[in-house]
Amino acid sequence: MHYSTSGLESARRHVGDEVRVVIESDSDIVLAREHGRLIGKKLGFSATDLTLIATAISEVARNILVFAKNGEIVIREINEHGRTGIQIMAKDNGPGIPDIALAMQEGYSTGKGLGMGLPGSRRLMDEFQVISSVADGTIVEMKKWVNKNG
Ligand SMILES: Nc1ncnc2c1ncn2[C@@H]1O[C@H](COP(=O)(O)OP(=O)(O)O)[C@@H](O)[C@H]1O
Ligand SMILES: [Mg+2]
Predict the structure, then answer these.
(1) Whole-prediction pTM value?
(2) Gap between the Cα atoms of 42 and 39, Å rounded
(3) pLDDT exceeds cutoff 50 at 2
(4) Residue 38 placed within a domain
(5) Which end of the chain is more exposed for a tag (fewer CB within 10 A), N or C?
(6) pLDDT, tens digit, for every residue of 82-121?
(7) 121 CB less than 6 Å from ligand 1?
(8) What CATH number does residue 48 fall under?
(9) 95 CB less than 6 Å from ligand 1?
(10) CA of 114 to the centre of ligand 1 (A)
(11) Domain that residue 12 falls in
């Protein structure tokens, strides 16, 4: 006989570590990376994964700085369907991305970058979503699961 624990699980979904880092200078990007590594390590990610997570955080935080001037990175533990993972949200109220599909293409940049930040981050993480509008700005949500194949 199985008892459903889904109610409890959803109540616990966002309990745990949560860190918000305001992004408005280069040093804030470093801080966000470090928090990503700390939380990721606590959740049991491998050293390699911690580097991938920190790299993805750098890219979305850099985009906040370059394209929106300021915003925030929210990093937290997530628990869904018995899996543990890390969620990173990059939020800003900047100019938004008019064509998300175009922005996700490798080599596309409206700035001086290489246009690899968003597509690269998508590859590094397990789940990747961009919500953006010219009116409200941009949210990039990324997730990576611990022991995905374990
Ligand atoms: N937070 C953001 N706000 C507005 N536009 C963004 C944001 N992040 C990315 N973009 C848009 O998406 C494009 C691609 O981003 P990215 O892949 O990181 O490349 P790069 O930063 O090298 O231009 C950017 O050139 C920009 O037009
Ligand atoms: Mg970029």
Answers:
(1) 0.90
(2) 5
(3) no
(4) yes
(5) N
(6) 999 999 999 999 999 999 999 999 999 999 999 999 999 9
(7) no
(8) 3.30.565.10
(9) yes
(10) 10
(11) 6-145
